[in-house]
Structures are given as C-alpha cells and as structure tokens.
Amino acid sequence: MQTSGQKKLSEAVRYIRSYTDMKPRSGIILGSGLGAFADTLEHKVKIPTSKIPHYPRSTVIGHQGFLVFGSHAGVPLLAVQGRTHFYEGYPIQDVTFVVRIMQALKIPILMVTNAAGGINPYFKPGDLMLITDQVNFLFDNPLKGKLEFGEPRFPDMSDAYTAEFFERIEKIALKRNIALKRGVLWVSSGPSYETAAEVKMIRKFGGDAASMSTVPEVIVAVHGKMKTIGISCITNYATGISARKLSHTEVTDTANLVKEKFLSLVTGIIEDLL
Questions:
Q1: pLDDT tens digits, residue range 70-98?
Q2: What is the CATH number of domain 4-145+159-273?
Q3: Which of 98, 18, 28, 23 minimizes the C-alpha distance to 58?
Q4: 85 catalytically annotated
Q5: How far apart (Å, rounded) are the C-alpha atoms in residues 221 and 157?
Q6: Active site residue 236
Q7: Quick check: 62 pLDDT over 70?
Q8: Does the annotation count 115 as an active-site position?
Q9: Above pLDDT 90, what percent of the chain?
C-alpha cells in the first residue's frame, strides 16, 4: 500500500510521463540566474511545474518554473528551471519533491547548482566552486518524520558529493580554461542574507560559500542512492567582506555575466563524464 507521499509522487510522475517517455541520464537543478542552460537543450519537452500535481511553485525571480526534458551531445537530461526554496514557506519535504521525481524516473545522477556568497577570502564574484561537502544550518531535514520513501532511516553522508568525480571535473574545467575552486557549502534558511558576524562564524566553522538551497536536495539524493555533483556560482562577496550592500539583483546579474563559463563547465561535465 502506498504512503501519502508515494501516492502524490505517482500522480506527479504519471502526469510527466503523459508528456515524455525520455529516460534522462542526469537531473540538473539550476540555481538563481542559471536557468539559461535548459534553453540550450535539443529536442526539448518543457513542462510547466504549475501543472504537475502536488509540485510546489517557485516564487523567486530567476526561477521560471519548468521541468525541461532534452538532450545535449546525445545525452538525455532533465533540467529543473526553477528551484523551490525552504524560505518560500514550503515544508522541507516539498522542497525536495523534484528529487523524488528524479528517483521515480530512475535518474542515477543529480547535478545541483546554485548562486552563493563567497566566504573564502580567495574567492571572488564570478568564480565557480566545486562543492566537496556541505553544512546544514537549516535546522531541518527532509528525512524527518515517517519513512514515506523507505529506508535507510540514517543515511551515511560521508560522500554526499560523489568524490570519485572531483578530479575528473577539475580536469574538464582545466581543459576549458576555467579556474575551478573547491569548497564546502554552508546553507542556512534565509531569506535574509547573513550578517557580518555570521559570516565570520561560517568561515571559522569551515564554510567557503553560503547559500539558501541545495542541502535538502542533496540529502534526499543520498537517501535515494543517487550520485551527486555540486557547482556553486560565487555571485557576491558575503557581508562584511566588502562594503557593498547585497541584493538579489546583484546575484542574478553576476550569474548572467558568467553564464558562458557556467555553460562551458556544465556541458563539459555532460560530454566527458556522463
């Protein structure tokens, strides 16, 4: 007998399958200002997430609200053009609904991307960072409560971002003249940006970049035994590192400026690794 969560998932997948029977090799969640990648796909099937049963709507500028099935260099993909965030007021399980959809579609690899504030003093706006680990400062977890999607109750997070990919991704970046950074992603709920004092704390606690997304999706990916790749676009200096006040406009503007570099890295990963 299906649980409530499984029933909702089945209804969502049935609706998606009425559009396409494509079997993607990877699902890619596109962060703030990074949604343009989905528009580059060939043989696109674009499904408005507002039409998918039980799918939470994104309300943030820079997140359009589509699941885009398509291919790049012959590799079938699912691009999520419009992430849902915890700070929008949804239960954390709803934030990760799209990852459960990927698992129901038997997609083996999740690629997560985001816009992030640079904490590491060696990072600057426009840099791309390979996420090697994460700190969950959301004070919530998408696996809490009933075992809606089965065991394990206590998934091991020691390889949350699949380490076997790290060197290969760095070689891909080098081949494309991208100075890819490595770092730990710190995630808090937002939607306010961190204070200068919080930024100091994050740095002392080992965070290299700060974001308001990604961690819930990665936890659910690990729970569902997906391999995971994470890329952060450093769109601004975190509070206190520069005198400039932060705004979401700066985040989306910087993401747009580095669009070509981001597209080059993501397409390189697809062509050489997937």
A1: 999 999 999 999 888 999 999 999 999 99
A2: 3.40.50.1580
A3: 98
A4: yes
A5: 10
A6: yes
A7: no
A8: yes
A9: 77
- Catalytic residue selected from 213, 223, 237, 238: 213
Catalytic-role residue among 32, 114, 188, 264: 32
Does the annotation mark 211 as catalytic?
no
164 part of the active site: no
* Residue 68 to residue 81: CA distance in whole angstroms: 7
pLDDT tens-digit profile of 30-60? 986 677 899 999 999 999 999 999 999 887 6
Q: Which residues contact 233 (CB under 8 A, 6 or more apart)?
A: 31, 33, 34, 113, 114, 115, 116, 127, 128, 129, 254, 255, 258, 262
Nearest 5°: phi and psi at 180?
A: -75, 130
Reply yes or no on whether 54 is catalytic.
Answer: no
| Catalytic residue chosen out of the listed positions 111, 116, 173, 212 | 212
Is 26 annotated in the active site? Answer: no
Residue whose C-alpha is closest to residue 25's, from 66, 74, 96: 74
- 248 belongs to the catalytic site: yes
Q: Where are the domains of the chain?
A: 4-145+159-273
Measured CA to CA in angstroms, residue 237 lies from 66, 168, 263 at distances of 30, 28, 22
Q: Looking at per-residue confidence, does 195 or 242 come out higher?
A: 195
Query: Has 88 been annotated as catalytic?
Result: yes
35: its two tokens: 């949604």
Residue 235, pLDDT score: 85
